[in-house]
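Subject: for your reference before the review

Hello V.,

The reviewers asked for a structural picture of the protein, and I figured it would be easier to keep everything in one thread rather than splitting it across files. Below is the amino acid sequence we used in the manuscript, unchanged from the supplementary table.
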Amino acid sequence: MHSSHLARAAQVIRQGGIVAYPTESCYGLGCHPGNRKAIQKLMRLKKRPQHKGLILIAANFEQLRPYVAHITEDILDTWPGPNTWLLPHTSRVPVSILGRHPRVAVRVTSHTIAAALCRAAGTALISTSANRSGKRSIKNYREALRQFHQSVDFILPGRIGKYKKPSTIIDAITRDVIRAG
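And here is what came back from the structure prediction:
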């Protein structure tokens, strides 16, 4: 990945745009979690029902701190990695991120490029698979270009990670596995 691509993607995020980028298991679509217009555009683009909610990813826990009300050491020990945790949230989390869920879904990403994008943008990111709701996830840059070149503001080149399935989602309170990765 070229540093100018990363700088451009970070600028797009900060300016309220949507970026497609590689993650642990597929290409993701992301935007700034504080930009309601960008979140709504992303939901329309994916044709994703509002009640499903969205995941936040970050390069480190500090980027998630504004959104998470409480976390335990054992959860921190699972990051970075493919574990998304449902945690108590702060008042800064918009309903559009929560959907119908009582907790916010967060992950410290282990993907080098996704983490670099979070650092360059200076924020956690909304992260949802780059596909229309109910369709197959996009696994490479060329496919992301083909499907999204006219509907997102930037597509960050790079390879996806080694994981075949999306992240595992675990409820931090009940410890129930909501989605097995």
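For the response letter, the relevant points are probably these. Strands lie at 19-22, 27-30, 55-58, 83-87, 104-108, 125-129, 154-155, 168-171, 177-179. The longest helix spans residues 3-14.

Happy to draft the paragraph if you're swamped.

O.
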